[in-house]
Amino acid sequence: MEDLTIGMIGLDTSHAIAFTRLLNDSDETYHIKGAKVETAFPGGTEDFELSRSRVGGFTSELRDSFGVSIADTMETVADKSDAILLESVDGRVHLEQLRKIISYKKPIFIDKPFCLSTEDAQEMIRLSELYETPIMSTSALRFSEGLTSVLDNQTRGKIIGADCFGPMELQEQQPGFFWYGIHAVEMLFTILGEGSDRVVTVKNDDHDLLTGVWKDGRIGTVRGNRKGNFQFGAVVHFEGGSEFVSIHSKQKPYYASLLEQIMLFFENGVSRIPLSETKEIIRFIEAANESRDSGKSVLI
């Protein structure tokens, strides 16, 4: 079977390099066989410094170090590829980018954040259904071995709650939890699943603390910090006890675990995460951000 030809859109993130190295470099320890990034479109957002300042360097690295052909348009990438990694770091542009490539009917992975509003999420899902083109979006932390190994434990009964934590740098263009807080929110939904009902957020200059209540009565929290602690983790509460999750405890990088799941998605067209859950995560973050501003509990 021939390798899948992967196209990449949005070279303004380190994820573009990480994914390409795992796919294209056969000497990489966690090299993933069966696909290669062949064509890419740089993209970039002029009013977002973290995009504007990085897109040139990452584009050069993909071309010079990995032999990736740089295209002038997104449509060229879609036309030449079997599947697409939409990596643009700015969630504001994902809907417009999707509109330009969805008609090519290639499976598309959309890196986090899926988008920045429930309205955009609904439209992106509608386009996927209209063009019968599968899409998938998630944070890499969802498939980290540190988390999946705890969730695979069947000996402690049902999950009754969770407390997640991680760094939460803020960016004006990707408000509140949409920038880095989304990683810990994705962990929370990986543990508790769909069914959130309401959320309230407490914040100060150094921390955010989000408390979500699920419709079945379970409670989950997300602590985001801006004090230099860059560790991600969680405590999963089972009926029979609680277990600590260290995202960084396993040797295998979580990018590799995520990319393995993306490749399965590219092969069979089935998202590893229901789009209904992806949409709920976006609404949950919207509500958490509303609560950041108002201090009040917000319904999902």
From TrEMBL:
Domain of life: Bacteria
Domain Gfo/Idh/MocA-like oxidoreductase N-terminal positions: 61-129
InterPro entries found in the cross-reference section: Gfo/Idh/MocA-like_OxRdtase_N, NAD(P)-bd_dom_sf
GO MF annotation, one: nucleotide binding
Record SUPFAM superfamilies: NAD(P)-binding Rossmann-fold domains
A Pfam family the protein falls into: GFO_IDH_MocA
Official protein name in the record: Oxidoreductase
